[in-house]
Each structure stands twice: as C-alpha cells, then as structure tokens.
Amino acid sequence: MELYVSEFSKYVIALLITLYTYECFAVFRYEEEGERSGIYTRQNLLMFALHFSCFLVICFETGDITYLFFYAFQQIVLYAVIVLYRMLYPGSNRLVVNNMCMLLAIGFCILTRLDMNKAIKQFIIASGSLVIALVIPFFVHKFKFLKKLKWVYVIVGILALSVVMILGQTTYGSKLSYSIAGITFQPSEFVKILFVFYVASALYESHGFFEVFTTAVAAGAHVIVLVISKDLGSALIFFVVYVLMVFVASQNYFYLLAGIFGGAGAAYIAYSVFAHVQVRVQAWKDPWSVIDSAGYQITQSLFAISSGGWFGLGLCKGTPEAIPFVEADFIFSAIAEEFGIIFAVCLILICVSCFIMFMNISVQLNDKFYQLTAFGLGITYIFQVFLTIGGGTKFIPLTGVTLPFISYGGSSVLTTLIMFAVIEGLCMIRLDEKEQLRLARARKKKKRSALAGGGHRTGKDALAEDDLQEAAMSAGDIIEYKE
Amino acid sequence: MNTKNNNIKNHNSKNNNLRNSNSKNQNSYKKKKKKNSEIMVITWMFTLLFLSLAGYITYYSVTHQQELINNSYNGRQQILIAKNTRGRILASDGNVLAQTVLDDEGNEKRVYPYQNLFSHVVGYAVNGRMGVEAQANYYLINSNAPLSQKAALDVSGEKYPGDDVYTTLDVNLQEVASKALGVYQGAVVVTEPGTGRILAMVSKPDFNPEQIADMWDELIADDESSILLNRASQGLYPPGSTFKIVTALEYIRENPDAFQNYHYTCNGTITRGESRIQCYHGSVHGGVDFKRSFAKSCNTSFANIGLSLDRDAFGQTLDLLLFNQKLPVAFQSNVSRVDVSEDTSDSDMMQVSIGQGTTSITPLLLNMITCAIANEGILMKPYLIDYVQNSAGNKVKSFTPDSYGKLMEESEALAIKELMRDVVEEGTASKLKGLSYTAAGKTGSAEYGTVKGESHAWFTGFAPCEAPEVCVTVIIEGAGAGGDYAVPIAKRIFDAYFGL
C-alpha cells in the first residue's frame, strides 16, 4: 500500500505542479484581475491538493500520522493569508499571493522531510512574518512620504551592514549574522529592501550625472562592506540591482554597459585578490578535482539533482541530507532529487512568473518612484533565485544565498514576504492611478462638451487633452486633479 | 514564454492606447513606450537566462545520471545495492553469463557459469568493477520490477530483483575464439560490420571472476602478464603490416586515378640516410605493382609509398581513423597512438608506413577500421549491451546500432576491399583460400622489443567478401608470422560463424 501511494503520488504531484505552473502564465492572457479570478481559484485548489499529497506521502513513508496535524496548521495559515488579502486589499494581485503561498507550502513540505524541528521553526517564523507583512501594503499605499526618505534608507542600511561586519567578525568569524535575544538576524537580507527604496527615491526625480554619482558612492559602500564580510552573494545582488535600476531610471544604455564592464573588472580584481573567491571559482570549473574539499558540496548537490530523473525518487526516498547545508543553500537540489526534474523546472517557472508579474506592475505604474521600486524589488528577487539555483547546479559559481520562501532561514522568509507585500501595495497605487486618470478624463470631457456644445473636436481641444496626458503621467500631478 | 512577454507588451501598449484613444498624438505614445522599453529588455533578459538555466539543469541531470551514480562519493549507489539484488548479465541467446545467487547461509554470491571464458568482457563486480559489470552497473543495481512484485517482496522482506542486461555476445563464437587462442597470450575481437554488435571479445591470459577477491593481491602484484588488462580493447600493440591498410588508403586518396599504375622493384631493402627497411624474413619480391605490394606485404615497396605521401594530409587521415583519441565506445578502451605530421623525418615515415616505430594500436581500433572497409566506409559504433529487461520480461531500455560516420569514401573502401581480397587469393592469407565462403583480410607480423625476429602475429579481415557479415581481428603475442599463426585462428572463427 505504502509503495503504491508513494509511486502514484510522484505522478500526481508532477501533474499538479505542471497545471499550476500553466495557470501562472495563463493569467497573462487577461488584462484585468477580474477576468483572472477563475484561474486564481483553480490555482488555489491545485496548491491545496499538492500540499496535501506531499504530507500524505510523508505520513505513509514515516508511518507517523502526526504530520497531518502539522499540515493542518499550515493549511489554515495559508488559507487565511489568501482570504485576508482578498478581504483587506481587494485591489491586490492574486497571482503574487498565490505564488507566495505555493512556494511557502513547497518549502514546508521539503523542510518537514529534511528536518522536522527546522520546519516547525520555519513555520512559526513564516506565520509571524505573514502577519507583519499583512499591514505593509497599507503603509505603502497610504504613506506618500516614503519617496522622501532617501537618507534614512542609506544610513540605516550601511549602519546595519557595518554592525554585522564588526560584531559578526568578533563573534562569529566570517558569519553574516548577529543574535538579539536568541533570535538570529541576517541584516543583509533586510537591507536589500532599504537599498531598493534608496535608489528609487534618489533617482525618481532626476537621473543626471550628479545623482548617478552619489548613488554609485552609496551603492559602492554597501557592496564593499558586504565584500569585507565575505557575503559575496549579497554584494553581487546589490551591485546588479543598482546597475539595472540606474539603467531603467536613466533610459541610458551607456550606464548598462558601464555597469557590465565595471562589474567584470571588479569581479576580476576580487578573483585576483581574495583566495576564497578563487576557491569558489575553482570548485565551479572543476569540482571533481577537489571533491574532498571545496568541491564536496557542489558535487553532492549534482549527485542529488541527477539521481531524481523526471519524476523524482519520491519524498523521503532519496538522500538529500548528504549535501551539507541542504536546507538553506541547496534546497533546490533536494527538491530536484525527491520531486524530480519536471517539478524543479516548474518551480523555476513559478519564480519567473512572479518576476514577470512584478515587471508588469512596474511597467504600468506612472509614478517613477513606485515604478523603480517595483522594478528593483523584482530584480532583487529574481537575481537571488538565479544565484542560488544556478550556484547549486554548477551553472555559475556558488555564492551561498537562499532560495526565497523555500530555504530555511527566518530573515530570508521575512524579507521576501515584505518584498511581496510592498508589491501588493504598489498594485493598489497603480489602481489609484488608473482611477485618477479615468476621473480626470471624464471631468475634462464634461468641461469640453460644455464649452463646445458637443460640437466637433477642434485642434485646440486635442492639444488640451495632450496636456492632460502629460500631466496624468505623473502621480504627483494627478493629486492636483483630485482637489 | 513568447506569449507571456507579448502579453506584457500588449498590456503596456493597450494602456498607452487607452490614454491615446481620443487624441492621436503619436509623440506622446512614443514617449510613453520608450519610457518602459528598458524594463521590457531586462524582463526578456532574465526570462531567457532562466530558460537556459532550466534547459541546462534538465540536460545535465539526464545526461549525467549514470555517470554520477557510479561515483564512489555518491552514497546513493549503496542504497540501491542494499535495496535490489544485482541483475543478471546474459548472452544474446539468453545464456546466463553472470548472476547473483544466495548461498546456504543466505549471503549473496556472484556466479559466472562460464568461469574464465568471459573474464574480461563481462568482468567482475568486487574489488572495483570491470567489463559489462562496470559499464552496465547502473542498470544492474536498479530495479524496474512491476509494482505488484515489489509490493509482494516488501511483505516478505526480500530485495527487489535488479534489471537484467542482455549483451550482444555469442557463447559459441567466444568459446571457439578462446580455444583457438589456446595457451597463447593475445586477443580476438569479432563484430558485425553492418551493426557494430560485438559477438566475441577474448583476451588471454584470462582469470576466473568468481575468485577475483581471493586472487586479488596476486593479480595486482603480477606486472609481467597484466592479466586484468582487456587486451582486446586496451592492449596497445605495434600494428606491423596490418597498418599497410591505412598507408594504402592514404595513397589511394592522394592518387585516386593513378594508384593502379604504381610500380616498384623490390630488392629486399630500402635505405634513406641512416635507416634501412627490410622485407620480412629477408624476402625479395622483385617487380611489384600496388596490388602485389599489398598482397605480399612488401615492406620496401610500402616504405617507398610512404615517402611519397603528403605527411600533413596523412596525419589528418590518421585522426579521421580515430588514432590519438578516445574511441566512440561505452566500455573501457585505450587510445591508439601514431605520430605523423609535416615535421616527420624520412626515416620515421618509412617506419610508420609499415606499422613499426612508435605507432601503437588496440585490436579494437583495427577491427573498427576493418569494419568500415567492409561496410562501404561507414563505421558503426561497436557495442556490447543490446537491451535491458526487468524481472517481468519487459524491455526497459534498448540500444540500437548507431553510426559513427564515414571513415572513408565508398570508392576507397571498395579499392581496399579488393586489395584485401587479393591477400587471401594470392598473398599472405592463402590459408583462407578456396573455402565455401569468400574471406578478405590483411596479415601482420609486428616486430617488438629489441630481439630481431620476435613478432606478434596479426590478422584482420571479414567474410563473405560480397556482403560482409562478420569481421574478425586476431593478435597472438610473440607467435611469429601472421599468415602462419593468426590466419588459422581467424579461419576457425569464420567456420564457426558460418556453421561449418
């Protein structure tokens, strides 16, 4: 019986995630959230079915029925999140919420299988974080002064990183975190969000040479502090986010090229100067020659990825625990081994669909500050996904960052939840913008028809409407229309 | 993926259209579009990046599955071994070549019913692995038994049966080849030129794979005869006169219309500067044309031919014939070496042309070149594993004949085939003349070591000449002339193949 359940479930789980992933991209067929609600409901059903299947398998494999209680708690929390977002923020984007819950659920499943204690800890932290994140869309939506705080973001950010650089060195050697009252923080995670807000607030009004130069200094300070702390993955994320945000703000390909060449130069210097960078690159180029030392993790990860096949070995059937730090840096490899390649590829595509939706929201925002914020957060998210999955599969050198929502790590989960919540706030701002535009247009039309008596449009009218267009493009101006 | 991004784009432009629906102000439209094009560029970039990442992961995991499970650092192999009984290895007719049985105390024991006969080709699975045991390890330790059977075995607490590996080997031909070699050291390779199926692969001295663990220290200590080496695919020998096939090919290639007009007068020796080449056992062949040079295996004539060759082009031909590179086979093999380039001296060129000097070749590669000649220039990759079958008799995986590509033009292959036919009719392999089948081939007597006159006996050839079905390569270490020692062994194998 157990055998039939575990064999059958492999195919069911692969099918469920494939359908879910299909729906992730099917939403882009429709313009309005209202038209997508059927898709979202199907996604919720698929997600619950998948989550339940996984825990059912774990119960059969371990012979321990108590896992179902753990499952029930998770299910209640995730369901509550979906319902609460819909109730509190009717204008929120449900794909973002669904994917958030789906990824959390996958994380719970694989963590439960890897280490029950860590799974419980993760669940508690995630539940708390979900509550915190629930108020964030409201703040983002209502607090218009967020764009004025650029010095606050940069000072708090660099201070937080510096504290860990100094304290972290004395307390933990090369570790990247510090503890307050028994809770371990990894500040570089939170500072990512502050940094995006900083760059957006510094560049939304003007992106001349002066602004680019000052932000470059600030970005450089972040990166240098992180490099000294040996947190190369985070340093790389900050750098890439900065370069791409300047590119989008300035619409100038020169900055993109300068960033690429500057980054390549910096990478080369880092490679020449730091021994630990050389070790990482060596372990990437040929891990088999250093399988005993620097290449051990990556080769164990490759063993895991290659052993699963299309449908995986089945939950609890593989040996992903052979990979050191599997629950943080290498969780993707554990998923590929036990859930299979189809599942792993779908997981990648779900992350990509989040990213595309972020970009979609960014493109539609008229206010440049919010547009840049949405863009920056999207890049932060997807680039981190790229670093961790690419690093664990020998696509790129290993940098040691977490897979958002899925890896074990409280700071990571909280940070990513806040990022997604900010995006939901931006969604509502976008809705406001649309509404303002509609109102403004209606008012103008009324005015015009009163003036021209419903006659034909004159050139002057058309011109006046163009002015309106221009004005409507900036949210600041929209507020004036609002009166 | 396309549609998603287009959708964003549409979305974007629809938005713009909305704003511009009343006014037709194109400037404003363009400006807005430009404003967001950078975001679209970045979105595309990352989407493509992730598609290539997903493609890479899929490709990597599928292509490395077997290789990585065999890595000693991969603990998953031990899990499979603990879960499944190692599968059987069988000959093409279903005779068991290796299987795992339980002894009286319930311990697993690997049994090889033919004892020494398949020692190298089937190999062993203790103290490391060799042969098919190594090559097919992944299939042998995995079980694709039906779920119902697995469930039943779960209840009784037994291990699952591993999958069975069916080889292309023919027990009868293997027996004949092994007996024919007798007490000599050497190797025999028998293949089908049209498919690449390996029918027999013998290497002597051999060993009993069941006793490998007991004999291990003794085998490792013995450097002299290197018993564990599979001489058929790993032994490196001077090719001697069999190499004239290659020299002849290059000559035909360089003189496609004129090679028939070649003429040379052999007086037993040829000298260039310091070095001197002699015909085997001091023969003097007199006036010879191209055919006769080949049939009589005239060293001086071939040294003369070698001197006329374009050395750069010859080097390229040798690379095409798979010298100096890993062979396209799934089992262990060694790289055959030959060194010819523009810088090769006259003296070395004469040595190379008759297969002496630093040139070395595996019997397997010589067999592959012979197969290509028999198969109109096209080489089929040699293979040992036919298919894998689960305990219920369903095929899990099948291996089909796979073409490596063209080693030579069809016209070139036909010309050499004719030369090899004459070796049987009028030359050194006359022991194969006048039989019920028509054979073709080339002999070789490769001198080795420092003592003059000691030579390995070679034969490589195929039959029937009109439509070759089987290709045989024989080497006997230190026996003497190929025509005297290797040809009779090949004959016994041909006879067995054609049921005589």
From TrEMBL, chain A:
Keywords: Cell shape, Membrane, Transmembrane, Transmembrane helix. One of its GO terms (cellular component) is plasma membrane. Its main location: membrane. Coiled coil: none annotated. It is a multi-pass membrane protein. This is FtsW/RodA/SpoVE family cell cycle protein. It comes from Parablautia intestinalis. Residues 446-465 are annotated as: Disordered. The keyword Iron-sulfur does not apply. It is found in: Membrane. One of its GO terms (molecular function) is lipid-linked peptidoglycan transporter activity. GO terms for biological process: cell division; regulation of cell shape. The keyword GTP-binding does not apply. The chain crosses the membrane at residues 12-31, 43-63, 69-88, 95-114, 120-140, 152-172, 178-201, 208-226, 232-249, 254-274, 339-360, 372-393, 405-429.
